[in-house]
Amino acid sequence: MHKAGFVNIIGNPNVGKSTLMNAFIGEKLSIITSKAQTTRHRILGIVNGEDFQMILSDTPGIIKPAYELQASMMDFVKSAFEDADVLIYMVEIGEKELKDDAFFKKITNSKIPVLLLLNKIDNSNQEQLEEQAQLWQVKVPNAEFFPISALEGFNVQNVFNRIIELLPASPAFYPKDQLTDKPERFFVNEAIREKILLHYKKEIPYAVEVDTEEFFEEEEIIRMRSVIMVERETQKGIIIGHKGSALKRVGMEARKDLEKFFGKQVHLELYVKVNKNWRSNQTQLRRFGYNQK
Ligand SMILES: Nc1nc2c(ncn2[C@@H]2O[C@H](COP(=O)(O)OP(=O)(O)OP(=O)(O)O)[C@@H](O)[C@H]2O)c(=O)[nH]1
Ligand SMILES: [Mg+2]
Questions:
Q1: Where are the residues of the annotated region G1 (predicted)?
Q2: Which end of the chain is more exposed for a tag (fewer CB within 10 A), N or C?
């Protein structure tokens, strides 16, 4: 019997959703940083076996949207409730509640299996772990509970095995050699955005969108040109930095990651452009793959 289904990972920002998906896939598909709202899209990661296909969805952390971009991010989360065969609800040690009541109700009233993963237990002691386990099992009584460390791999294999058990009988939804639903350019954008999240402070990373305009694969090398979009002229200067040093660093680090990801030499050209208030502009958001309703 062949099994296949959608396994959608949801939870608050920064709890480790992307780390878990990458651990399952065994590749750095989703970017990971210590900042909240690292993930902005719903990203499929597909694990293929001879007799199964597990289609994981990494989603943005749940927040109360303050502007159009965030509203669109929450639409991705909503869509992850609609087609899930198994729901993974991830919380982290020390967390007390989900930031959105309506989503929380959807989880606790879910008719499909829910796995409640308490992540980052490497950061806790036995006493704290027991107290948190108790709290969450009472809050989400319909879920199966697993304490894990996505970072260190603790209990991750057990969760994986349980998901396989829960997958419905079904033929594969995607070709068996497919790893994700996103095109190559998406991963270029994300690699660059990750470096921006890592190296710039406060509002800057949240005002940035990256668009890869050129992706041209030659025999020995892939040539890419990407534009970093910011909302205001002052942000442009900050991104570029003194004599272009800050931008250079982003380009160098992103290129290294991309060479690993594509297994090939990469030439990456970066430039910065102001795209006024793109985060609140429906047309711009659609252009960047948001607002897909
Ligand atoms: N100590 C510890 N840190 C972890 C673990 N899993 C993830 N992290 C860290 O938590 C931070 C957030 O991880 P992400 O995987 O980006 O979290 P996310 O839930 O995808 O975050 P958003 O995309 O912003 O919603 C990163 O610094 C990770 O290294 C874990 O098991 N233990
Ligand atoms: Mg993420």
A1: 11-18
A2: N
